Amino acid sequence: MRKNKVLPLLACTGIAKNKELYLPYLGAGIFSSFLYFTFTSILYHPIMGTLPRAEYAYVMLMLGFVLLNIIVFPFLHYTYRFVIKRRKRELGLYSILGLEKKHIAVMMFYESIVTTGIIILGGMLFGLVFSKLIFMLLFYMLEIPVLNEFPFSFKAFQITAVFFLVSALFNLAFSLYAVGKSNPIELFADSRRGEKKPKFLGLLAIGGVLILGAGYFLSITASMDQIIFLNFFLAVFLVVIGTYFIFTSASVMALKLLKKKKSFYYKPANFITVCGMYYRMKRNAAGIVYICVFSTMIIITLSCTLSLYLGMEEVIAFLNPYDIRMDCQPDNAEEDKRAVEAAVEELKAECGLAEADTIFYKYRSMLVKLEDGKMETSEDLEWWQEHVYEIEFVTLEEYNQASGENKTLGDHELFLYSNGQDYKGSAFSILGEEYTIKEMLAGFPGSMKKQENTFNQDYWVVVKDYHALPEEFSSLLGNEVLRTIINVTGDSEAKSIFAEKLKSYFPNAGYRSNIERKLDMGAMYGGLLFLGIFFGLLFMICLVVIMYYKQITEGHEDRENFDIMQKVGMSRQEVHHTIAKQVLLVFFLPIFGAVCHTMAAMPMTTLLLSAISLFDRGMVIKCSCGVLLVFFVIYGLSYLITAKAYLRIVERRGS
Amino acid sequence: MALLEIKNLKKVYTSRMGGMKVCALNDVSFSVEKGEYVAIMGESGSGKTTLLNIMASLDKPSAGSVLLENQDITAIRQRDICAFRRDNMGFVFQDFNLLDTLTLQDNIFLPLVLAQVPYQEMYNRLSPLAQKLEIQGLLEKYPYEVSGGQKQRAAAARALITQPKIVFADEPTGALDSRAADKLLSLFAKVNEEGQTILMVTHSISAASHARRVLFIKDGNVFNQIYRGAHTKEEMYKLISDTLTLLHMGGDANEKE
Q1: Which candidate, A74, A273, A509, A654, has a CA 20 to 30 Å from the CA of A467?
Q2: Does residue A169 surpass a pLDDT of 60?
């Protein structure tokens, strides 16, 4: 046989003969490319244009994408190194048998082609299936109105292929370098060598704590401003890096300390556990960091998603407190009211609506500045300035009529209503005259109140009558406007027709309908929900795969060790006990980290949610607790499954 | 009273598919006195490894019994067998079976750790042993950092540190070069002179010539045995070699020294 046939053959048999090594590697690779491909297809998906604050969502995903690159690249390298380390023995043998380094390089190149091809294609295939599946699940089961199809962009295929080719090239270069610089004997021995111990442990630990602290600080002190999204990702980035440093250095330091403590170290279960972890502590730390990071991502993503799901209706109701609003300047208010009522009645019957309630009130509005217990007005005020509000002034009579209440007011008393945070203080002065706030109203017709709302806060003032206000002030108020608030119930098509026709009846009125808007917003929030569930599931799969990968690879490594230990006189129970201890450590450390991270991320998370008008902090926290509990259960289950897989591998006798 | 008594040991393997029965041990009986150094020789497939595995309680016989100080080890329950093996027997394997994750010192400590012996006691037992086996300077090293001979001496230390009633060695020189093998064997002899009972399975004539008695196994039966008595090692070598030739020829001699 000629050489150019032998080498590809050797490459293929190399992969086939090292199934135990290559299957987990290919699995991890396919999974990474699946993750990567799915993410990029979302990034270039039309749904991105339909989200609320779409530009922010895009920026967030883009930053997330950067983060993904930062995570996936080392992960691929980490899994590859593991394979190469174990294969060095075989390569050494080839080299001894007379294969030149050149030939080994060519062989490894062929191997790379095969594995990378499998990884890229496999990932894309799974990505296509998974995306379709999730999409259908959401579309048909939850009836979330998203899109009626899930198109894939060419760009996603392209970017994924390029990324994985580049990382494969990098890994190949790495292994060629490693093989090139060592002689066969070194290759032979290398597969058993322990890991190099990291240097500058103290420095790493301090750096880790500082970086993690900075990340936490960013989250806890975050406020709603332009750079919050940037800060959010900076915080995530810092926390990931910090976690890595801390787990790497702290675990090594802890293990060293434990080894020194003879009375602890020389106990059967501790002995094996500590040694095993010390022997491959860098990889251990990396594994724990991955599990920790993905756990945190899952918890936060799902908390947000659940909050969104539960709070969505309320948010939409808050942003659309009425169905239709009409403003007109009445010649004769009573006549106008009757005209509107008649039109509503007529259209209600015509369109087949179940109900149509109308509320009327008259108001006069003005742009004022409300600050430091003073209400002022001037020509220079602009609506976008701080503490400047367009306030609607309503008389007591109108208010009582509209709300069906029977309240009273004195000359220097008023009611104040805000759709956001309550005004702090019990009185303020208008042009020097002191007015007492008799009551902060809890509600107002055509408005919804949220204490946490600070973004688009408005005020309403109820006075005894306009003469109760200072003369100079009331003369500046705008003309009296008759406002009609209409809320309808019925099927959405009938509502739309109703709104259209009503509009055509009163062409001169200031008209606003929320009916279409509610539907649009439903779709927008549905889009966010879709993303939340999509990524939640994606991260969940990541987590399980990483845990499984970790246990499988370590199982193969440990099998020989446990075999020897049983020969030396370790019983099956002791083996089980040791394994339980070992796996439990790997189980608890990351979840502990994840809980810490989640708590630290809470302020920022609630802030981000309030940007899309989800103000209910209490609910978000409750959702997080719920998600945490469910997550513990799922995590525990996957732990049991992976631990079992590990045990099965370890106990398989001989090979 | 013999330390180890093997009575009518029989081992039959049944292949999983058909009912093909392979008789590994036919009817083996012999005994080992305290302080003896016995080598068991035989061709590949003669049943010597099966015999060792049964004596070491790693495998169960089809019939017969193995008595260690009059206790039948084939009757010990599975859950107690590990502890029993740990407390009474030491093992040296052909491929060392050292844990890569542990330093040589910790490898040697392993059986004691499993037996929950306090650290100070372990340490006290280690120093004279390390000196005897000439591995004092290597204790902090990992198995992949030392040579095969050094590994095997560490493995021997691991077998001896529990102060076992008997040490089983399975082709201990199989993976060593002749010099390292000689060194190990003379150390074995030294340890034996101090009263340690050793039972070694080997097909190396030079390894067997260190022993004080050599048993030959053929087709699942004890074929012959030679006592070293007053013979020198060289004479012993010759004797073993002759016996093996006889074994090959298929003779039925039963000469005793």
Answers
A1: A509
A2: yes
| Contact (CB, 8 A) for A468 and A437 | no
Please indicate if any CB of chain A lies within 8 Å of the CB of B218.
no
Q: Of A142, A180, A57, which is closest to residue A608 (Cα–Cα)?
A: A57
Calculate the alpha carbon distances from B92 to A410, A567, B169, B199 in Å: 103, 10, 5, 10
Residue type, A158: Q
Q: How many angstroms separate the CA atoms of A354 and A207, rounded?
A: 65
Highest mean pLDDT among A3-7, A115-119, A610-614, B43-47: A115-119
Q: Do A278 and B101 touch (CB under 8 A)?
A: yes
Distance CA A387, CA A368 (A): 8
Q: How far is A271 from chain B (nearest CA, A)?
A: 8
| Residue pair B101/A273 in contact by the 8 Å Cβ criterion | no
* Radius of gyration in angstroms for the set of CA atoms belonging to chain B, rounded to a whole number: 18
Q: Quote the CA–CA distance of A201 and A426 in Å, as a whole number.
A: 59
d(CA A168, CA A159): 14
Contact check, Cβ <8 Å, B86/A569: yes
pLDDT in tens, A442-479: 888 888 887 777 667 788 888 888 888 888 888 888 88
Q: What is the tens place of the pLDDT at every residue in A215-239?
A: 999 888 887 666 777 788 788 889 9
Which residues of chain B neighbour A573 with C-beta distances below 8 Å? 79
Q: Which of B58, B59, B81, B82 to mutate to test the interface with A (most CBs of A within 10 A)?
A: B82
CA-based Rg of chain A, rounded to a whole angstrom? 33
pLDDT above 50 (res A539): yes
Residues of chain B in contact with residue A568, where contact means CB-CB under 8 angstroms, are 86, 91, 97, 110-111, 114, 158
What is the pTM for the complete model shown?
A: 0.71
**Minimal CA separation from A574 to chain B, in Å:** 9
Widest CA span in chain A: 108
Q: What is the pLDDT of residues A240-292, one digit of tens each?
A: 889 988 888 888 888 888 888 888 888 877 887 788 778 777 777 777 888 88
Contacts 24+ apart (CB under 8 A), A397-402: A397/A465, A398/A361, A398/A362, A398/A363, A399/A361, A399/A462, A401/A360, A401/A361, A402/A359, A402/A360, A402/A361, A402/A445
Work out the number of other CB atoms within 10 angstroms of the CB of residue B252.
Answer: 9
For residue A129, the distance in angstroms to the closest alpha carbon of chain B comes to: 42
* Angstrom distance (rounded) from CA A476 to CA A153: 58
Give residue B253's pLDDT: 47
